[in-house]
Design goal:
- About 35% of the residues are buried.
- Helices cover about 35% and strands about 15% of the residues.
- It is an alpha/beta fold and about 400 residues long.
- The strands form four sheets. It has a six-stranded parallel β-sheet with strand order 5-2-1-6-7-8.
Length: about 400
Amino acid sequence: MTQNLQQARPLEGIRVIDYSHFLAGPYVGRCLAALGAEVIKVERPGTGDAGRQHAWFVGEHQEYSGYFLQQNMGKKGLCVNTKDARGRELMQKLVDSADVFIENYRPGALDKLGLGYAALAQRNPGLVYCSISAYGHTGPDAHRAGFGLIAEAKSGIMQMVGNPGEAPPLLRISLGDMYTGIHAVAAINAALLGRVKSGKGQHIDMALYDTLVSMHEYAVQCYTLSGGKEVPVQTGHDMPNSTLYGVFRAADGDLVIAAQVDDAWKRFAALVESHGGPAGFGADARFHTSTGRNAHRLAILEVVKPWVAARSVREVLALLDGIDVPSAKVQRIDEVLADPQIQARGMVVEQDHPALGKIRLPNLPFHFSGCDTGITQVAPDLGQHNAEIAASLGFAEADIAAMQADGVLFSR
């Protein structure tokens, strides 16, 4: 299919104020920028967003954090001192011109600065104001600070990961922040669409803890529908209620096999039998239903584990591809970036950075038939677009120069 990428991106004409830091909020802003919005990253004077101090750094360039570069590409940079009356005026005018405001501070923190929802909505009733916090703006824990790690621990997800009897491992990706972030993107777009009919914006209250609890596609209903009898626990490398589905170690690496569907299982079992497995394994009727496989899971694993272990990853994958049983190597990051599928999908974006040269960062998974959502614009330096943004709000050139000289508008 030939794509026509000449259409405007969906959110062009929408102005977003990204008054967030570190990860969840900046990720929301990055997504909205990719979808066409004008996103203005607002930072405080000095060091700016705490994400600027988070590795990875390139050589001597400690002022350029890969963490910040990834989550803030495509944005304009404004660094303003809101404790100064001129800075507050500039911020108020910016809010008046905006469609969306994103923040991820502890509930109540921005009220003290006059940047809470009630104050901003009074000035701009059409504003869609998105708050992201650990626990949300209501409930007994609303006042508590937290990070993705805290939400992962409290949500029940961490407790199910790892080997029985061992402390759960760290997930090594910011699941709570990223998953909450993309839910916030969906909610913001829904609120913008609703505003078309109502003419009014609203406050979106997103919590990392809420989002991770909502992710449970099995554990919650398992517990509630069993009358509280079934509590999912750590199972190691496979799923007891979805045999055969898990991670297996081959002679030279690890792979995953998904033969949990009856037809796929029968093909897989016949393959194992025909390639050195025990006689009758493929025809064993005990294993032909999910209930039977789950009941005899250990007997199945006693056959499958050594069968996989005796072969290379490449050999096992080739055999399973031949019978259309889903499987994949457990890849390292270098293998992921070299994967032809990832390259074909454009999932690594290359940008020209004025100080770092060519940089490569993960792309977003948006693919539209009518427009290109790739971002070529690198993340802004601290206060890079101060003058441009102030001028767009009607500030005179002399006033802008004075604010820059006095540090009200701060740049690196």
